[in-house]
Design brief:
Blueprint: H1 9-18, E1 22-27, E2 30-35, E3 38-43, H2 50-60, H3 64-72
Antiparallel strand pairs: 1-2, 2-3
């Protein structure tokens, strides 16, 4: 597994949208994204900790390599 970068919540949302997720709703600083039956909650913070990002990717069912590719596009 590659090393995950420190990114903002908005960058994570943008990368997940490139992967087919769409914003279902937002309450406060938490954005809920859905893709079919799978979904995830992304905190809209200035910088996400690496462990938080890993949890979001696990919740979304997304591989780290796949996420990094979408992040760089």
């Amino acid at each position: 597994m590659p090393k995950l970068p420190h990114v903002s919540g908005k960058d994570v949302v943008r990368a997940l949208e490139r992967m087919g997720f769409s914003i279902a709703r937002q309450r406060g600083s938490h954005i809920v994204l859905r893709r079919g039956q799978s979904g995830c909650v992304v905190p809209d913070h200035r910088e996400l900790k690496v462990g938080t990002l890993a949890g979001v990717l696990k919740q979304a069912g997304v591989d780290a390599d796949e996420f990094l590719d979408a992040l760089q596009k």
